Amino acid sequence: MHQKINVAPKTWPIERKNKKFVVVSTHLQKQGIPLLVAMRDILHAVANRRELKITLRDGKIKVNNKIIKEDKFPLALMSVLSFGDKNYRVIMNEKRKFSFDEINAEDANELTFKVIGKKILRKGKKQFNLLGGHNITSDKEINVGDSVVLDLEKNDIKKILKLERGSHVLVISGRHLGKIGVIKGINNKMTNIDGKDIHFNVNSDNIMSI
């Protein structure tokens, strides 16, 4: 499935003048960017769709440590893309565009998620709902709004990043999308952030600890 390039999300850092259509992700159409667009048009790791399909067929591309076979698979914020000896984390830059930050193999085994919900299971075990549709169970003390760093090989929580005064955060939606700063204060749902050359307030739902 394709869409007209002029209606593609503005978060995609792609050339829009010389193309009429662009591929659509299998899901997360607004929150992610298709693997094909990332590999061909941004990273220039493949020349065309056919070359990407061959690479996918050979099992040479991973997203979040899992082999991917679909060229329209969406890369969401903070996802890890791996191929060859290259690893990239999907971030949002201050121009409100998806960007690919090259990282080492050790960092590629970690993935950060915001906790958006939790419930108590049998025997007191807790299930945490993570942004992006993932779930994980743990007996650790984690609040909704915090972030967790997962070890992708062990599928276990490696670190908890609290959403509190002094935390480093990334704005993940809204008009301050892509900005990074430090929390100076929280008043109900509004958070005061000290960023680079700017101070601003943002709804706590629109940020995640990093």
Q: Which short descriptors sum up this protein?
A:
about 210 residues; mainly beta; five-stranded antiparallel sheet; 19 strands
Tell me the radius of gyration: 18 Å
Order of the strands making up the biggest sheet: 5-4-7-8-9
Which stretches are poorly predicted, pLDDT < 50 over at least 5 residues? none
Helix content: under 10%
According to DSSP, the number of beta strands is: 19
Distance between the termini: 34 Å
Lay out the secondary structure:
Elements: E1 2-4, E2 21-23, E3 32-34, H1 35-42, H2 49-57, E4 61-63, E5 66-67, E6 74-76, E7 80-83, E8 86-92, E9 98-102, E10 110-120, E11 126-130, E12 135-138, E13 147-151, E14 156-161, E15 168-171, E16 180-187, E17 190-195, E18 198-203, E19 207-209
Antiparallel strand pairs: 1-2, 3-6, 4-5, 4-7, 7-8, 8-9, 10-11, 10-13, 11-12, 13-14, 15-16, 15-19, 16-17, 17-18
Summarize the structure.
With 210 residues, the chain is mainly beta. The chain has helices at 35-42, 49-57; strands at 2-4, 21-23, 32-34, 61-63, 66-67, 74-76, 80-83, 86-92, 98-102, 110-120, 126-130, 135-138, 147-151, 156-161, 168-171, 180-187, 190-195, 198-203, 207-209. The chain is built from two helices and 19 strands.
What does this structure look like?
The chain has 210 residues and is mainly beta. It is built from 2 helices and 19 strands. A 5-stranded antiparallel β-sheet has the order 5-4-7-8-9, with no helix packed on it.
